[in-house]
């Protein structure tokens, strides 16, 4: 495994994620907004935070589902649980899942969690930590690490 990791990462000590296409049935899959406003960036960072800290938790590409990638749609359909993190009231990530027939088990919207939508890519890391903790607690995610930035 270590040799394969070195080959894939070019020798870098990167944290490889579980293959969501092969292991979806054992994973809680997170589909998050990555919109061009503060709340979209918070949503994406929350998904990264939970993926990096979780056991059997993996973010997956929301845009690929929206584009109709059969492999990515099937990841959502086969996931143990699907968690959607929307950025704002448009709820694009949830709408994408609905359009593709992916059942959503847990849905969150950053702009409804005391974060104002601002036309910036900047965000408050404390919002990310607070919201990641809330989602982990409410969904029962199994986290193996303390909060990370």
Report what the structure shows.
- The chain is an alpha/beta fold and 149 residues long.
- The chain has one domain (20-131): Rossmann fold, CATH 3.40.50.
- It has seven helices and four strands, in the order ααβαβααβαβα.
- A four-stranded parallel beta sheet has the order 2-1-3-4, sandwiched between helices.
- α3 (38-53) links the parallel β1 and β2 (57-60).
What is the CA-atom radius of gyration, in angstroms? 15 Å
CATH class: Alpha Beta
Major sheet strand order: 2-1-3-4
Distance between the termini: 27 Å
Mean pLDDT: 94
| Continuous helix count | 7
Secondary structure: number of strands: 4
Assembly form of the protein: single chain
Fill in the CATH topology.
Rossmann fold
* Helix percentage: 40-55%
Percentage of residues in DSSP E strands: 5-15%
Corresponding CATH architecture: 3-Layer(aba) Sandwich
* Class computed from helices, strands and strand pairing: alpha/beta
Would you list the SSEs in sequence order as H and E? Answer: HHEHEHHEHEH
Question: Which residues sit in consecutive blocks of at least 5 with pLDDT less than 50?
Answer: none
Number of spatially distinct domains: 1
Features:
single chain, 149 residues, alpha/beta, Rossmann fold, four-stranded parallel beta sheet, 4 strands
In short:
The chain is α/β, with parallel strands linked by helices.
SSE blueprint and pairings:
Blueprint: H1 2-9, H2 20-23, E1 28-32, H3 38-53, E2 57-60, H4 62-66, H5 70-78, E3 81-86, H6 92-99, E4 106-109, H7 125-139
